[in-house]
Amino acid sequence: MSILRFAIVLIPVIIGLSIKYKKAYWLISGYNTMSAEKKKNVNIEGLARFMANVCFIIAAIIFVASVFILIGESTVALILFALIFPVVIYTLIYAQRFDGNAFNSKGKMKTGSKVLIGSVIAMLALITIGVGVLLHFSSKPAEYTLGNGILNISGMYGQEIPINEICNLEIRDTIPEVLTKTNGSGLGTMMKGYFKLKDIGAAKLFVDTSKPPFVYVKTDSIIMILNCEESENTKAFYEKLKTEWQKSAK
Fold first, then answer.
1. Among the four 9, 37, 72, 139, which has the fewest Cβ within 10 Å?
2. Which of 62, 56, 55, 60 is nearest to 27 (CA)?
3. Is 121 exposed, middle or buried (0-12, 13-18, 19+ CB in 10 A)?
4. Is the domain of 158 the same as that of 237?
5. What is this structure's pTM?
6. Is the peptide bond before 213 cis (omega within 30 degrees of 0)?
């Protein structure tokens, strides 16, 4: 998974190099759909240099953010990813100076161009807010409560499990290697949802992999692995759940 994160960095780098040195101007959104007549009014060499540099900046942001995710600094990574939003807005506005079609005879930006830029910025703002909210909730640790014979797991991918349906319960200091994410959220060491683990197969995780120990809960239909922010809290939760489980078996 970490290799995939860094591979993503190569995409804007390759695009930037292609635009700057191979004159792959068709990669520049907007310019590639212009008519031949409109393209004559564009300073394509200046625009190409600018867009290539933007690609390199975005690649650098993604690379540094990925490093912070790998070392467990998810908050810093989120802040870095958020920087892409103002970079894109600046790009939209600054790129207009290379496009003679965006200005009238008096040198003022045309209303249509302003509306287009405003619409794109609004859309990006909504997307950024949505992604930010999603990442915020996915980075929060799950909460566990026991009551009325039910183990309740709150938060993203949470569920309720009747304690009498648990067929095995144990605590371990390690977690198997995570092979793939099937339907879940993996933000640094925080993992929630459905994953495929080495030697176990399908499992549902509510863990911070950097904070052992881990509670293994097995039912007839699923294996779940849980932990808390503090190791002592994980141990206390395990003992409490174990007591309730033993009671339900009587």
1. 37
2. 55
3. middle
4. yes
5. 0.59
6. yes
